[in-house]
Structure formats: structure tokens, C-alpha cells
Design goal:
Layout lengths: L17 E5 L2 H6 L6 E6 L6 H7 L24 H11 E11 L1 H14 L2 E9 L13 E9 L12 E3 L13 H11 L5 E4 L6 H8 L3 E6 L2 H12 L3
Parallel strand pairs: 1-8, 2-3, 2-7, 4-6, 7-8
Antiparallel strand pairs: 3-5, 4-5
Bound molecules: S-adenosylmethionine.
Amino acid sequence: METPISTIHSGFDDEERCNLHLGDAVKWLKGLKTESVDLLVTDPPYESLEKHRRVGTTTRLKNSKASSNKWFQIFPNSRFEELLEQIYRVLKKNTHFYLLCDQETAFIIKPIAESLGFKFWKPIVWDKVKIGMGYHYRARYEFILFFEKGKRKLNNLSIPDVLSVPRIHRGYPTEKPVELLDILINQSSNENEVVCDPFMGSCSTGVAAINSNRRFIGNDICEEAYEISIERLILCK
Ligand SMILES: C[S@@+](CC[C@H](N)C(=O)[O-])C[C@H]1O[C@@H](n2cnc3c(N)ncnc32)[C@H](O)[C@@H]1O
């Protein structure tokens, strides 16, 4: 079945399974209704990614039509407060929020999120299975910060806090595996609930959400990411 795609700014109506938008994450979130999202999973382009990129511990760039050959725009640490404020506002009561980042960014995000009312449970470790590039204890993991607004039970209480899923090679820069997002989405949402990603990149969150019969709203500032996302969602079941 073809997935309807549209660019309505203010969320979507009941019939739609997904809605994608091109623009700034905070501006887009400001246009969404208060308490309209059941789960937010996101992977912002935090400042210290530039450092990992310089020493070669994150995705190398490549020249191919299939994925971006340009490094994406960075979201400055100074904007996290306004971002987290909007994330807290759009989430319904009793929901979860996951944010992928490194340990440096985790120390910045945690106190801001807590001051807004989120409970911080713990960092979940994404074990990328294969060693990365660089030196000085070569990178093999990333954090997934696990937050809660109100109280919500995880769907499966036997999932460990280390998730071993192989990294993606030669995808969109820092593309996350759908299998990893699938675990988070199935843990913290139910069928037909709305999953949101304001920095969707190549839309791995959206693919996992739609494949698990959730609805998806996503946004990215980069036109190429937006187009890749549309193509990937059209191929979903
Ligand atoms: C780390 S990547 C996301 C990768 C994604 N998780 C995936 O699996 O493909 C971050 C994305 O944020 C986008 N971005 C940068 N600044 C933004 C902003 N101010 N608002 C929205 N998106 C932004 C970039 O274009 C990039 O696609």
C-alpha cells in the first residue's frame, strides 16, 4: 500500500500514517499540538560529532547519489534548552523519550531535561558490534538516553540495557539501524500510536515505526534527507 506523504505543518489527521516536514526542528515542534505525541526518538547532530568526525570515529563521507556526500548541519549545544522544552510539551503524559548521543552531550542534556520535568532512567548502550575507526580505545558504542514524562511501563521487561546491533556501513552519515529503533519503539509505544523524530535524517525511526504499525511524524532541515525519507517510507509495507 502506498504511504501517504504530506507536509502539513501542524501534525496530521487521523487517517494519515505518516507526515514528513522539511525545516528547523524547534520551529517544527512549536507548530505541533501540545501533548500530541506518544513517543519521541531522536538522534540530533550534536556539536561534538564534529570532533568525532575530525578524528575519524564516526561515519566517513562518501560520494554517492544514494546518500549525502555532504556532512550535515550541526545543532549547537546552546539550543538544547529550547529543543527539550518543545519535546516535553508535545509529548503526552506517561510517555518515553530516547535521545542518541555521546557521553559529552549526555552531560549537557541530562540536567536540562530533568529541570523541565523528565525523569532520567539511564543511558542504554548501543553496542555497534564492530569496532569503529580512530585510535585511543576505538569507538564501539553510543548512548541512548532514556527519559520518561510521567509514568509508563516498558512493554517487555526482559530487554537488557546493552543493545547489540551492527552499525550501518555506507549509509546516510550516522544512519542508525532500523533494528535498533525497532527495539525502542516496541518497548515504549503501542500500535497506531504517534512516534516523532525531529531530526529524522534518512528516516530509520520512521521505517521502524511504520513497520511496527505505528504512525510517524518526522522532520529534517536537509532537503536530501527529506527526499531519502520519502523514498524509504514509500517502500515500507
Ligand atoms: C545524526 S543525523 C540523523 C540520522 C538518522 N538518525 C538516521 O538514521 O539517518 C541528524 C540530522 O539532523 C539534521 N539537522 C541538522 N540541524 C537541524 C535542525 N536545526 N533541524 C532539523 N534537522 C536538523 C541533519 O540534516 C541530519 O540529517
